[in-house]
């Protein structure tokens, strides 16, 4: 066990996963990751490069990855915006890489440096075109270490960029961490071609698992990599059926991660009020669940470690028995929309949202939950008329709470 | 329209046909316009490489976006067609991960000097051991003939219908100022000269940069009434005098009718050469080539890594 910061744990996790190339550009609150990598990498015969900007950082990472290195970059919101171009490139060209985004308040230069969970939607939709993102969301320093390792595992084995998203609090918080290095064989690696080099080799001809084997540059396989739509040989094409099939395969191939990253379910068996939250707010919510149980509210927590792609089936199952669902996010309601999509009409959704840089406290979660629970008599297992509940929430908690636009819409519709 | 006499007859890089086996025939037919200068450079490049390699297993080409960058697709090597302006960043990562590879970056004037200008100067500053060939056709060809940072003042393009109002870059001077240790300029007009400096650039340990004056007949030529592809090639003879002693046989050129504005007169050949530690050396990355500077330098990358 070592007492280290979330950002340091991220660097340690990368090294443990075999990362041997890092390129980055200074930005708060992620800079400690670059600093730790600059310190660690030379000891492992790895390369640290301070790049001229974030586009170059990820560009260099992708070049190194094609050379065969496990490679990573780390940044925060403004840099994450600049990297979107190359995240899209990595996705289409299927180049493994790990991108860490330690979130601060945005948009624009925003809040250097107060925490936020404002880049959640950007992690999925930041680059142009259709893309099925993979994004992990650790909530503790230990989880930063573990999920960074898993990010490499997923990225390498699926040939796709993987984002690790956490906020400034997790990045700068210090906790005791078990830094035991996993067996390298347990970490996924990129599939390699079984056929020898030659004209018949096609770098984008996928196996049954939809993943195409990837040789390194300069190992006898001569092939073309492009950000243009391409056929199995990697050659540019505008054949609409080939392009459609490519986009479909890229989306389908990453869906398997839904089975590989387990969410945390806490006291969910009999929960009628389910809190859905991730990252640092997921931890806050967990403490609140305990407090709510003591007060007689049957509360539970469902905390995804995988934000993208959304584990629809697991989420649906988790919320099936809930009367009320509460999302807790440090933004204006980004992942809440995903929950709303899954919840549909089976339960009522009451988001607790807070953007602006202040963390959400356990007390706030408890208060919000109690307000909702009282209003809806959730504790008694009886659902109050919706209008009544809403008016209660609005009357008593106007200043403290954000009731989602969806909720208002539902009321209007009645 | 123009008459050129006493053009160089240098045959130091023989066109033998061997270069054909380095072509990626499955990608043909190519997409370059008739009269475009880029194909001449591709041919000259492959001629040089075919003299050195039977197969390009250990040569990687990295390119950005634009007509120039597309030529790597026709080379049977590891070819990486990246994003607009950023091939040097990909190439930097690739070279640092695999220092034993020969990495050649192909970029254009828009790609390398406008959107990718920052990456160019920083690659030069770091003196990473790779060769960057910038094909300068003075225009954005692929997007339909818009003004580039190399379009000379007054020139007509689709975005400068009244004539270009911005001054143009001198790519070679820029690269030199940024720290490139090998700077040359060549022309599609004289591929042999390109071949010669390209060979020297490959041999040079450090960041080598070659600006190649190429021609866009379809847009730049047509809009500015420079005539046919052949006329435009001839007009490149204006890029004189050469400062390379071996390249002093200069063609004489008569003024080209209707060719306004006049294209600038620029020196060609090897313009600058020096030796500094490469990025690989300063980082202590093993497997790359040693620069001349490493023999006299007190800086030891290995020591840094072991500390």
Question: Can you offer a commentary on this structure?
Answer:
The complex is a heterodimer of chains A (414) and B (307). Chain A has 414 residues and is of the alpha/beta class. Chain A has 2 domains: 185 residues, Rossmann fold, CATH 3.40.50.970; 150 residues, Rossmann fold (3-Layer(aba) Sandwich), CATH 3.40.50. Chain A has 14 helices and 17 strands. In chain A, the strands form 3 sheets. In chain A, strands 2, 3, 4, 5, 6, 7, 8 and 14 form an 8-stranded mixed β-sheet that branches. In chain A, strands 11, 12, 13, 15, 16 and 17 form a 6-stranded mixed β-sheet that branches. A two-stranded antiparallel ribbon of chain A has the order 1-9. In chain A, strand 2, helix 2 and strand 3 form a beta-alpha-beta unit. Chain A starts with a strand and ends with a helix. In chain B, helix 1 crosses helix 7 and helix 5 packs across helix 6. The N terminus of chain B is likely disordered. Chain B is globular and about 60 Å long. Chain B has a single domain, classed as Rossmann fold (3-Layer(aba) Sandwich), CATH 3.40.50.970. In chain B, the strands form 3 sheets. Chain B has a 7-stranded mixed β-sheet with strand order 3-2-4-5-9-8-11, sandwiched between helices. A two-stranded antiparallel sheet of chain B has the order 1-10. Helix content of chain B is 30%, strand content 17%. Classes of the chains: A alpha/beta (414), B alpha/beta (307).
